[in-house]
Known about the structure:
The protein has helices at 3-19, 46-52, 56-66, 89-103, 135-151, 167-179, 190-205, 209-224, 228-250, 265-277, 311-326, 340-352, 384-402, 408-428, 440-444, 451-465, 482-492, 494-504, 507-527, 536-559; strands spanning 31-32, 41-44, 73-79, 82-87, 117-121, 155-162, 257-260, 282-284, 287-291, 299-303, 330-336, 359-364, 367-368, 436-437. The chain has a 5-stranded parallel beta sheet, sandwiched between helices. It has a 4-stranded antiparallel beta sheet with strand order 1-2-4-3. A 3-stranded antiparallel beta sheet has the order 8-9-10. The longest helix is centred in the C-terminal third of the chain and has 24 residues, at 536-559. The radius of gyration is 28 Å and the shape is flat. A hairpin with a 7-residue loop joins strand 9 and strand 10 (299-303). It has 568 residues and is of the alpha/beta class.
Amino acid sequence: MHAKALAKKEVLTSLKKAIGKKFPITVDMIGSVPTPELGDFSFPCFVLAKGMGRKPVEIATELAAKIGPSSMIRKIVATGPYVNFFVEPVAYGNAVLSDILKGKKRYGRGSTGKGKRVLVEFANLNTHKEVHVGHLRNLSLGQAIANIFTANGYESIPIAYINDLGNNVARCLWALKKFHEHEEPAPQDRLNFLGKIYTEAAREIGDDETKKAEVSAIQRELEEGKGEWTALWKKTLKWSLDGLQAVYDEYGLVLDTIYLEHELIGESHAIVNKLLTDGIARMSEGATIVDLEAQGLGMNLLRKTDGTLLYNAKDLALALHKESDYRADRSLIVLDIRQALAMKQLSATLKLMNFPREVIHLGYDMVTLPEGAMSSRKGNIIRYNDLRDAMLTGLMDSTKLRHSEWKEKKIRANAMTLVLAAMKFMMLRQDPGKVLVFDMEEAMSMVGFSGPYILYTIARIRSLKGKTSLVSRPDAGLLLHPLEAALLRLLAQMPEVILQSGAEVRPSVLAQYVFDVAQLFSQYYAEVRILDGADEATVCARLALVTSVEQVLCNIMEILNITVVKEM
Length: 568
């Protein structure tokens, strides 16, 4: 049990003893205090007063007088209708340092999900399209969410579902053969090459019904898996999958399984046919639908009049596959909020099929640029490779100025780590439900709410620790500066922050916390001469504190899937 939980336990024990068994008290009733001057924990007396028919202020005064200090609690005071508890700073501080220094990479992790399995589906990108900055929010959120569940004790299984068929693929192949049949792009350019052709196809086809019919014919042939279009599809599919895997690897994704859309075609048709037989689906003007009007979800279109499948049909097959493969306790899909209706239709249709599990949609809003929204069809997107290279060039140049003695390989590796930290942190620092404006300069900033700022703080601590080799048992009683006490209080919160981020499925909680820790340390670093002007025992205690700060920063960044650097 970590330090803050132990202190809360002592508070709970003392409250139960003072109140008696007539009114049950739980740890959830013990809250935080707005400022450290008022205490560390607070118990509101409103519910208790209502049950006793007395004023809460009177009860608070009475309880504060009854309760005495304990090993972790030094003082208890009544503040209006609240009983406030102050921790014993030395015992509490030593417990916090011990938790972190002994726990190391395990510090902050919990066991709430022990014995439970959660499936996190994300990285559901389309083939025959480029990866752009908007996709990075999905990749960042999905992996961070999977890691957060792992940190809370769950068996977390990250998976992806690649859309490698459908109308968009048929459009790309149509334009490829029509306008670029004999072109052969370099391996590293193939994904972007196909993406540009998709944009060209959207522009060329427009509202032309003849061209739309040609695309539909290609899609039918692809679903049947035969003919010349299938041969072209197989060739370009490999281009796409190789390109996507390269992005997944570079971005640090760890996926247990990657499902491919074309593998589910036969099963999807069989499911649609069974839904017709069972009376769950019906024909409507030549198309196959599930009528969800009663649930306020309109018509769930599964198969078009030309016999080709919609994504909604294939999502049914995927749900059954995932259930058969994993039988997870929870099944989550990280997907753009613009797919909210489709996700609701999926859940409603699965319910009609007596599917044993709820499918939970974790939605996030779009990513825009300072100049406005992006669109693959319009071709005004910022490709991942282009964004990465632009950021990488700038960081490599600045790194060369700071470290002229470094070799090119080291400079590039260091800069690439910073680039990925900048991208991921920018995508994670804001709540998913809000539109995110991706500003490259802000993402790369070495000051403020950014990934590079956190990495800079870690590098600063490592540089500081490299200047001494003092080793002895730290004494928190020597950490007398107010900022040292503030840091200890903040570091003690990490287990609860990880628990909160898991309960709310919000990586932004961790991003805000890690920034708060880095910011408070920077203030401490500016005000306190950590290695100078103090005796050896005090320096040792301060080093233990800054080592604990480093460990907490590194642990949180690991959960957010952000690699740290040794030096900057």
